[in-house]
Amino acid sequence: MITSLVRFSYLNAFEPKANPSGDLKYSASILIPKEDKAGIKTIQAAINIAVQKGIDNNKFTKAQVSGLRLPLRDGDTEFDQGTRGAEYQGCFFLNSSSVNKPGVVKAQVDGPPVPLFDPEDFFSGCYGRADINFFPYNQAGNRGIGVGLNNLMMVKESERLDGRQKAEDAFADYIEEDIEKVIQEKNADLDDDIPF
């Protein structure tokens, strides 16, 4: 399924990172605003289909459904518990991942999306859409619905969630003069301080 407009956090779209089990995976935390009732309803319907698939494929029984780990989580609750940042407030969220690199594109106003290859162009904090799938799992006694990450589309930039900024922004207030002139002036100042 393709999500409605969401915000991305913990985005690892270009290089895989080790998860808590040590497996290298591409991943994205997908933040869905709570006011996006249609988007949330679509996600819940897809989760319900995955639950039924799990029952049909004997991953778990109907009696075990109430104890399943479901992927749609409340950002406000987890923020209050201190496990998520302020960007999760007012949102539900999903954690998606894949061992395969997702396709990454940027939306265009007057044409088809274009591929993105640089993590500086698409980072945690950006808004976009995700192509994801839901699947049932039953591993080592853990039962639930997982979220597979297929493709990502960046729609617009926003404040970075990792605290970094672009080099152009970091040095925006620094307009350099003629470098030779600056060096000569600094050397002249130093000459005055040298005691010999």
Can you describe what's shown?
By secondary structure, the protein is α+β, with helices and mostly antiparallel strands. It has one domain: Nucleic acid-binding proteins (OB fold (Dihydrolipoamide Acetyltransferase, E2P), Beta Barrel), CATH 2.40.50.140. It is built from four helices and eight strands. Strands 3-4-2-1-7-8-5-6 form an eight-stranded mixed β-sheet. A hairpin with a 2-residue loop joins strand 7 and strand 8. The chain starts with 5 loop residues before the first strand and ends with a helix.
Uncertain parts: none
Topology, number of strands: 8
- Total of domains: 1
By DSSP (H or I, 4+ residues per run), the number of helices equals: 4
SSE class: alpha+beta
Distance between the termini: 76 Å
* Main sheet: strands, sense, barrel: 8 strands, mixed
User: What does the radius of gyration come to?
Assistant: 24 Å
- The CATH class name reads Mainly Beta
Beta content: 35-45%
Any guess at the CATH architecture?
Beta Barrel
Q: How would you state the average pLDDT, rounded? A: 91
Instruction: Describe the strand arrangement of the main beta sheet, using strand numbers.
Output: 3-4-2-1-7-8-5-6
Morphology: elongated
Order of helices and strands: EEHEHEEEEEHH
CATH-assigned fold name: OB fold (Dihydrolipoamide Acetyltransferase, E2P)
Helical percentage = 10-25%
- The CATH superfamily bears the name Nucleic acid-binding proteins
